[in-house]
Amino acid sequence: MRIAGKLGGAVVSLSMVVVLGFFLFRVIPGDPVVSWTRGRPTTPEMQAALRAEWGLDKPLPQQFLDYLGKLLRGDMGTSFTYSRPVLDVISERVGPTLLLVGTSTLIAVLLGLWLGIRGAWRRDSRFDRVSTGVALTLWSTPTFWLGMLLMMATGDLFPSRGMRDTDTAPGFFSQAVDVAHHLVLPSVTLIAVVYAQYQMVMRSSLLEELHASYLTTARAKGLRDDLVRRRHAVPNALLPVLTLVFLHLGLVVAGAITTETVFTWPGLGLLFYEALTGPDYALLQGLMVVTAGAVVVMNVFADLLYRVLDPRVRAA
Amino acid sequence: MLELRDLTVHYGSRAAVRDVSLTVERGQTLGLAGESGSGKTTLGLSVLRLLPRSAELSGSVLLDGEDVAEMSWGRLRAVRWTQASVVFQGAMHALNPVRRVGAQIAEPMELHGVSGSVAELLEQVELPASKARAYPHELSGGQRQRVMIAMALACDPRLIVADEPTTALDVIVQAQVLGLMRRLVDERSLSLLMISHDLSVLTSTCDDLAVMYQGEIVERGRATSVISSPRHPHTAALAAAFPTIGAPEFRFAGQAPVREPLLRTEELQVNFGPLRAVDGVSLEVGRGEIVALVGESGSGKTTLARTIMGLQRPSSGRVIFDGAPIPLKGKALKAYRRQVQLVLQDPTSALNPRHSVYEAVAEGLRIHAIPGDEESLVTAAVERSELRPAELFLPSLPHELSGGQLQRVVIAGALALGPRLLVADEPVASLDASVRGEILALLLRLRAELELAALIITHDLGLAWNIADRVAVMYQGRIVEQGTVEQVLLDPRHEYTRKLLAAVPSTTRA
Amino acid sequence: MSVVWDRRRTAWAAGWRAFAAQRSGVAGLALLGLAVLVAVLMPLLTGADALNVARVVAPAWEPPGSGHLLGTDHTGRSVALLVLNGTAVSLLVGLTAAGLSVAIGTLIGVTAGHFGGWWGALLMRVTDFFLVIPALVLAIALSSVLPRGMGTIILAIALTSWPSTARVVRAQTLAVEARPFVERARALGGGHLHVTGKHVLPAVLPLVLVNTTLTVAYAIVAESTLAFLGLGDPTRLSWGSMLHQAQLQGAVSKEAWWFLLPPGLGIIAVVLAFTLVGRALETVINPRLRG
């Protein structure tokens, strides 16, 4: 029953993404043709032709319905820069981004949770102070700047452009090694900027949990300190953190845009940058709808996962 | 079994427990009574060295002749739960919310290598074995407390420390849990150290009684003799807070006034979705009359009170005040609220911690823009509720005052508007036993001086006996019985009222 | 009521003592003071010609040392002067965007928490939606369709970063409204204005203050990111726009670390300072966080 409600909510959220895409790129700019052709030599006749082609001479509600109908058929318009359907351009770039964001998030979450747990348990120890300080500093660092710095500092140690070299021998293994080699710098950058928030959230969640009286019960039973932590405190503290991991996915996406730009990693983030320099509005619109939609869907998964893991929510 | 020698526990410079020497013999049951802050919980935790790190302990805690304070961590862990176990207060928080209770009961057995079965333990505490698969939030308060007891028995310890094991339970459930504990202690000839603020609970379970006051043991002896002839004034005050129903010395209310109707509800009904919280209630409060509305948690009594205050809309039925139905919104409702004032259970949370006493009392005056000199009106109201001299209290913030003083501030805030009816929701339930009598006396005096009527909502039948003129018993949204105090409490007609009365732990029990 | 004022003064003094007890918070505050000083004074101290590309005579890409403390950029301007003068825009954008964002968040949070019902549910639905959507992606979209300029950047950041404030404020509003003293105020006859004004807002404000400092930190990083992506105000100098230039002019391949390091360190210093102050304030408000 409540799961159905959640799914309904997700559908509402997705429709809001779609509406937002329309609103941002058709309504706010006033006359999209003026902004979409900004910086390109156009004549009034060409603009009128474009207007007719995009259906901008129709009333706004009609435009919205057209936009919606096309979207449902998977038509997000045509990219200026690539002269190809937006959806095709986007789908080519999904793989590299998934690889980069996936590896980085996984490592960042594990690292952040481990540091957070250790820090909270030995609160105010040297370990806690140093790791918190490092985390806060990295959290304050602009991703792209860190990337540029890393690139400069490591020199020729790691490749800093693209995802693979053209001269790599064919065959799965050598290709994989090459990609992994290229992955090092971008993922280190992304991890460094992202892990801190997981650490801070985990740390404060566990600190909060350490006041709980069931931990006194556990100690009274004769449990060793590390068992009290592993069996009782951490599982409870972990639950709220899990949803936050997914909620912060938006920040990872933001980090990916600049990281991919710095390292010319051929994913969605770099595509964002290319669309901006165009500016290629059809592509930007598509990218916004796709990334926002993906994050919304991920959060629904997070919610369902939480429902499975926490018996209190499951029953409610 | 357990011997405390000159035990002193400091938190920083403050001594929570001072020079306490106490013994619990094998098979003995000892009740430790005291108000909040008397150090009784600290003492209980020190038995298994469970105090927080900030606590400094001196003296010795001998468990079966061995000093707990001197044990190595390994030895201490081995002793915990096998020689002594603890039933903590508030089982909701003392159980891990995300693990099944069966696993939590089994945990100490695995840990200490004791054989035994969870199902058997659950059977002992009269729970079906299937409850082992439940999570704490799926159980009722009484069931959770039974789980705590089953867990405490898991490693067959010789001593059980029970810290407020039945606080926050309803009377009938409390009686069942206490009965269970009594039976288990007898059957297994356990030693029991039971800690509570409630003397009646302790005397109904324990043979011996020790009274703690400001960190020291002020009185100790057989339970019956401590109650019947207390030597320390604090013990006497504690005992007075748990009245014997029917005993004239506990009846403070004078002659009931001649009935003149002030407030009347007609077939009042309040629904929350499919749930019927208040189900056709007709109740009357006369001018200057004190009516006690008695019921367990979930009986709908608080919803009824909120509806009378106009804080909750009735689904059907009416509330008639002074001959006219109460308005449901707008200026008229605001004006009505001058006439009827609310006194809440816990005065520490009923006052905004950022507002001074002056601001709290003046709040109502400002809302209603009462003409006249605000300062003198506030002073008058504060003095009426017997905080004298008022100047001393006006600038204080809530955290600087005691519970009893705060409740007087709440009452002063109500009096400032010159109401004709007070609706008091458990007005003394969260106050220490020794101030309870003072607040009740204040309510009676206000009735005599101002002809102020009161509807007192309580789970405590003793409170009804103390001051009410009439009693209404509420059960599952309905008033099942109402009449004068003597009729209802001494000659109950309804089965539920009888059950309630039977469950009240009495200090006179032999 | 002089008593009340005395009391407020002691409360503030106690709050300050609790804040001052945390060295990192005090360090952050000192750093902020310095940054504000630089932001206000530098434009007055810098000559009109020093940053004018057409009037600069020094060679481009000059490493630190000879004549220029931090070297020169691709046009021969002094990096040290650029960084110091960039402080003002970064701080200004950060502060105004955060102020606007927190104002929106507080308004929505209090309204959603206080009124509840379908109106509150709707507001929360919208908040949750914007909380999940990647804020930077929205900000990028907004600043790409609106005319370039500092106002656009501020608006884009403010309009996309309010949801976290709204959430926190709503939670606190609900917590305060569940307290019996609010029930008492209602029973005394207090209406919406009385309850929100006298009880909810004073309890929420400290939290809002903390959130403001943390939002400023976010806004400064967001400004630099937007500028780096080429969405900044082309007429104004900020740390972000310096880094944008560094990227465009290939500072990395030229190994011109002196052009890259200073603006980045400036961002980190100011953002860290705001974060530290925010965390210290949080500890003052919530004593449970204290050690």
UniProtKB/TrEMBL annotation, chain B:
CDD domains: ABC_NikE_OppD_transporters (cd03257). GO terms for molecular function: ATP binding; ATP hydrolysis activity. Belongs to the ABC transporter superfamily. One of its GO terms (biological process) is transmembrane transport. This is ABC transporter ATP-binding protein. It holds the Pfam family ABC_tran. SMART domains: AAA. Keywords: ATP-binding, Nucleotide-binding, Transport. Residues 2-239, 263-501 form the ABC transporter domain.
TrEMBL record, chain C:
Residues 87-278 form the ABC transmembrane type-1 domain. GO terms for cellular component: plasma membrane. Its main location: membrane. The chain crosses the membrane at residues 26-45, 200-221, 256-281. It is a multi-pass membrane protein. One of its GO terms (biological process) is transmembrane transport. InterPro entries: BP-dependent_transpt_permease, MetI-like, MetI-like_sf. PANTHER family: D,D-DIPEPTIDE TRANSPORT SYSTEM PERMEASE PROTEIN DDPC-RELATED, OLIGOPEPTIDE TRANSPORT SYSTEM PERMEASE PROTEIN APPC. This is ABC transporter permease. It comes from Lentzea tibetensis.
